[in-house]
Amino acid sequence: MQKSGLNLQANAAKPRFGLLFMVLAIGMAGVLCWYGYRYYTTGESLPIPMPFVAANPHVDESTVTKEQLRSHSTGGDKPKYLSIPALNIQQARVYGVDVLANGELGTPHNINDIGWYGKSSLPGSGGTMLMDGHNGGPTRDGVFKRLGELKSGDEIVITRGDNEEFRYTVQEVKHMSVDELNNGHMQTMTKAIAPGREGLNLITCTGNWVPAKQTYDQRVTIRASLAV
Description:
The protein is an alpha+beta fold. 25% of the residues lie in helices and 30% in strands.
């Protein structure tokens, strides 16, 4: 009888453990859903791994071959290549981009290429060029992954379609949220940092990928002037 009593107690305990397990499972599911929602809408970092791609999945990550670099061409007065020795960027291809329907500046399809806003100035024209590039893709770093590491005094070289080179000196490096960029700073990116001198301004995304907005939550901006 004693043995039978012990078995009955063990059997009676099973429903209690089952209920406890169910409560814990529901609680964990709630936490996962909450953090998943926060990540999707704000890009907030999670305390646990989540099955989301933390970068733009719609870009081309393929390596640009030497032949593709050599064969790249553009109009004689347009930017053809961009080089930044301090970041080991050597002759990244430059392609024209425009403003998208949502008001954002377009980017090149390949993460290794540079976008030049076609309505900004041309190299050697005395105005200010605006260019952008990718931080990265789902599995690889983009051409501007380390853009925020630039310092005042670093050099940026633009090679024009006729192979003439123009050298610019970095004068300003800024890190900011998307809201800060949209609340006034973007307007300065179409202007020269040094009045009366030709300018080159660069921008890229950084920070956390926000799936709901299909963009990162931070920006890096560089403003440079034609070297004298």
